[in-house]
Each structure stands twice: as structure tokens, then as C-alpha cells.
């Protein structure tokens, strides 16, 4: 079946000419496809406000339904040029392209947008030379891919602007780039970078941001870096959070830079001097230089391999593993036992029950036979007994079908799940699922649907509007690939021994500097601590040098403390 529809319209008025063209084509012979095109052109002349202009807009849509995927592509292009009062010219153009591809296993999509605009001041007396008032352009790109194996997305945004109006002018550039990469149960990574610069006749303004996040089973890290500037004032900040098998740390730094000329204007009557002279800033810096203040801190915890491990009791056989989770007994508090007696003292009709000393929970669970809803899967009765929980090395699943109303039937095949017991600092029971395919049956799209008590026929609607009947569209059978993956369930708890904790902090400026570090370490049955701090300054009374250490020992229930301290 082929369908083709075209519309043309023209409007001619004294001040406006408009032309519209539309075209729709469709074909279902070899592969279902449809295309839509729309074109608009206009010209206007309004003498009342001395305004003339012209422009056009083209839009295209293309849809294809293949046996492997559904594809949709769109594009838009437009231009405009307007002159107001023979002095102000407004011009711009727009381009937009998008693509969309979907199949049973993945989704892919891209988007690109470009926008340019200009506002110029026309000066006829100077031989039509242009004075640019505003210039602005944007470019944006987006890409996305989603599947059961991976999700990946990128974004790229760039814009430029130029403004020149009266005595004010500015010329800026803004860039944003981002990326996301996610693999289920494996890794997660994301980055975001921002770089914006906007110098102007009033001063410079800028912003730089960088964010990175990476998570996997071996290491987790997060970094954030920021730099801002407004005229002569500058600020920077950096943050690092990380964790791996050897250590966990947090680093934070910050800095500020600016001019402090006003300090020389502040006079202290007590000293008959300016604040600049009292702080003795002239000994280490100059009034014309940028003054700074830097602060940094670091916390590092170094892990140790020792510790205490608590494992669920188990027995490992040739073809299976058996876990034995003991019963849980909770002692009943005495105040709970006294509650019935207290009630009986108030109301003698209340019988005095026998409250046990312990409450024992039997974790065995019996599940009767049942049918899973919307499937043909029937489960026989079974019992889950944590005291004798046997898990075979190979678990074979049953094939079944998922039957949801109005949707195609999905057939899930039988497959084997391999189980492995992994011993280490933390023991795991690993379940490894193989790759398999879910079959989705073919589906014929309905030509009518029911809303409440009413039946809506799409054929009647198309017959009345376009005088043709809807073709029969059949979505062929699809295969959904389920990737292999492994699930690790912990069967033990590991409590690590205390390692080493160190803290460092520094403050730096032209007139004041201080550095402090502290350390806490476990050595056998004792704790060793140390502290060192030193300060230098243009003001002598603020300077010092401090060193201290202590040892805390535990011996037969006694605590011995040895301390040393030195202050200069």
C-alpha cells in the first residue's frame, strides 16, 4: 500500500506574503516507512514601523520500521532576516537534527542543534557599514546508547557571545562537556567539565568546574575542582574522596587571591599606624601584588590486613554447599515480664500469663504450591530451612512464558546457574548466569481499542479524514539478549583491625603560615599518637614550634600512658 498527500497554500496581503507546502508519503510494500516534509516561506513589509523581513523554515520527518529496528530521523532548518526602521538588522539561522533507533536490545539516539543570531546597527551615512550590537551562537551535541549491557551518554555544549552596546562590551565563550558510562554490576563513571569565560569592559569573569566520579568493586573516587574569577578576586577549591583496598582519604584545598590596597587606608589610633604597617605586610609583599590565602587539609586512613572474620557455618561437598544458620533466641527483659503483673494489680479480671524467659524464632519457611501470575510457570511446594540450606553447584531453571494482556508472548528458555563458593577476607557465594535470549512473538497492531464502554475504530477515523483504510502492520518476532552476569552474595562479615589515621592541615599567607600534622597508629596492644605544629609570621609573638607524642598501652586491665611534649 502506498499513500501520498500534498498540500500547498499561498497568502498574499499588502504587507505579508506567505507560502506553505506540506507533503506526506507512506509505503508498506517492502518495509513500512513514512516521510513528512513541511516548508514555510514568508516576506513582509510594514511601512508603519519601517520594517521589512523574510525567512524560511524547512522540517523533515522520516520513519522506517524494519525487522531489526525502528528508525526515526528529524531535521529542521530555518533562516530569518529582518530590518527595522532602516537602522537595526536582526538575522538568525537554526539547524536541528535528531535520530532515534530502537530494537529489542538497545536504544540509540543523537541530537545536534546549531543556532546563530546577530543584531547589527546599520549606518547608511557611512556607506552601509555594520556596527555589531549582539552576536550569539550555540552548538549542542547529545548522544545516548542504552542496552542491558551498558548505558553510555555524552553531551557537548559550546556557545559564543559578543555584545557591543554604548560604552559596554563583552566577548564570552562557554563550554560544557559531560560523559556517563554505566555497566550494570561492574562500573559507573561520569565526568562533567565546565569552562566559561566572560571578559568585559567592567572586568573579567570566569568559571572552571571539573567533576569526576568513578565507582567499581576495587576503587571508588570522587574529585571536584573549581576555579572562579571576578575582576581581581579569584577563588579555587579542590576536593578528593577515594577508597580502595589500602587506604581511604579525603583531601580538601582552597585558596583566595585579591588586592588588599584598602588595608593601607585603615588607621589604628592606638598605634598611630595603618593596618598594613601593624601587620608588617611590607616586609614580605607589595601593595600592588595580589595577596593570597591558602588552606589545605588531608585525612588519610591506612588500612590493615588483620581483623576478625565471622563466617556463616557451612559444609562444602562435591556437588553442593550447605549453610547452617542457627536459630535466633532473644532474652525477654525483666520489665516486659512485669507488665502482666502490673496490669493484674489494676484489673483482677486479667489473667496472669506465663511469659517465657526466651523467645526463639524458627526461621524455617514452608511455601505451598502456586502459579506465578501472568505466566505458565507452576512452582511445587518447598521449604526454606536456614539450618540446613543446601545450594547445588548447578541450578537449572524451568522454561516459561510471560503473557501480559495486549502484549506479545515472551518465552524465557531454561538455563543453568553456576554457583561457586569464594573464600577470602570476605567469603562470597557467587551465582553466575549465562547469556540467553528471550523470544518475543510477533504482534499485529490493533486497528481499534476500547475506552470504557466505547470502541474506537481507527479505520473509521482514517476513512473520514483521508478516505483510506489502515494497513495491517505486523511487528515480527524479536530476540532480546540477556547478557551474562555474576551476583556475589556475602556469607561472612569481616571487621578490620584499626590501622593508621593521619591528619594534616596547612594555612599559608604572606604574613602568617601554620602547618599541623597528627598521627594515630595501633601497634600490637598499644596506641601511638604524635602531633607536630609549627607557625611562622611577621608578628613574632605568633610564632611557635610544638611537638608532642604519647603511648597508650593496655596490660592486664591496666592502662599505661607515656607522654612527651616540647614547645618553643
Describe the structure.
The chain is mainly beta. Among the domains are: 29 residues, no CATH class; 138 residues; 73 residues, S-adenosyl-L-methionine-dependent methyltransferases, CATH 2.20.130.
Tags for this entry?
S-adenosyl-L-methionine-dependent methyltransferases, 46 strands, 4-stranded antiparallel beta sheet, 65% strand, 568 residues, mainly beta
What is the CA-based Rg, rounded?
Answer: 38 Å
Uncertain residue segments: 124-130
Structural class by secondary-structure content: mainly beta
What would you call the shape?
flat
Q: Biggest sheet: strands, sense, closure?
A: 21 strands, antiparallel
What's the helix and strand layout?
Elements: E1 2-12, E2 16-27, E3 33-46, E4 51-65, E5 70-84, E6 88-102, E7 106-123, E8 129-147, E9 151-165, E10 168-183, E11 187-200, E12 203-216, E13 220-230, E14 233-243, E15 247-258, E16 267-268, E17 273-274, H1 275-278, E18 291-302, E19 307-311, E20 314-316, E21 320-323, E22 328-331, H2 334-346, E23 358-361, E24 365-367, E25 370-371, E26 378-379, E27 382-384, E28 389-392, E29 394-396, E30 400-402, E31 410-412, E32 416-422, E33 428-433, E34 436-440, E35 443-444, E36 448-451, E37 454-457, H3 458-465, E38 474-475, E39 478-482, E40 485-490, E41 492-496, E42 500-508, E43 512-523, E44 526-537, E45 544-555, E46 558-567
Antiparallel strand pairs: 1-2, 2-3, 3-4, 4-5, 5-6, 6-7, 7-8, 8-9, 9-10, 10-11, 11-12, 12-13, 13-14, 14-15, 15-18, 16-17, 18-42, 19-41, 20-21, 21-28, 22-23, 24-27, 25-26, 29-32, 30-31, 31-34, 32-33, 33-40, 34-39, 35-38, 36-37, 42-43, 43-44, 44-45, 45-46
